[in-house]
Amino acid sequence: QVHVVESGGGLVQAGGSLRLSCAVSGIILGNEVWPGWYRQAPGKQREWVATISGDGSTTYADSVKGRFTISRDNTKNMHYLQMNSLKPEDTAIYYCNFPRRLRSWGQGTQVTVSS
């Protein structure tokens, strides 16, 4: 069974940065596994944020393009989300999962951006 554990969230001022981490177990992060990040803001549906393919190609939601960077470390079975120039509207619980085949959701990590 695949398990993910998100970490790295916190409270930051607008314009600040955070780096989220996702530890993965139960599946090997090989080229056929494409990790991604999602987020859910208060009162809103969960939305997709970013995906990284097996060859390292990345795609982003328009709302975070140019500010967020997804990366992966197959040797550690982890992937990451570097978030720069944070805005109050980025406030949400952030989750990692696998967009091509969703697995069970983790607890997520809270990101709060103050204005």
Report what the structure shows.
It is a single chain. It contains no helices and ten strands. The chain starts with a strand and ends with a strand. By secondary structure, the protein is an all-beta fold. It is globular.
Give the strand order of the largest sheet, numbering strands 1, 2, ... along the chain.
2-10-9-4-5-6
Mean pLDDT: 96
| Alpha carbon gap, first and last residue | 40 Å
Structural class: mainly beta
What is the overall shape?
globular
**Total count of helical runs of at least 4 residues:** 0
Percentage of residues in helical conformation: under 10%
Number of strands: 10
Oligomer: single chain
Radius of gyration equals: 13 Å
Low-pLDDT parts are none
Residue fraction in strands = over 45%
Order of helices and strands: EEEEEEEEEE
| Largest sheet properties | 6 strands, mixed
